[in-house]
Fold:
Amino acid sequence: MGGPVVAQLAAAASHGERAAILLRLPDVAIHFDCPALHRVCMAAGFRQGISFLALRLACLNAVRTLDGRLPRELGDALDETRAMLADLSALERSA
Structure:
């Protein structure tokens, strides 16, 4: 099961393309399609994508601080992983 984004991720030719797709995903796609997206990343050996999906899902389920922010450690981990995927995607575009 999975929506069109799952098929798009499965059809991606490289990790850079997969990174670009994952970076654009709205929260609703993570919520509904995370298991299928995870399977596609596993099949492709895309470990960075697997980590990113796990963090995005954790963010969706995290209890926020009193001012509505993510817990610092979770937010920092997501930012680092997002930056790694952005670099991977940019490398693909510049090649």
Observations:
- Residues 4-94 form one domain.
- The chain has one domain: 4-94.
- Helices lie at 4-11, 15-24, 27-44, 47-61, 72-94.
- The chain is about 80% helix and 0% strand.
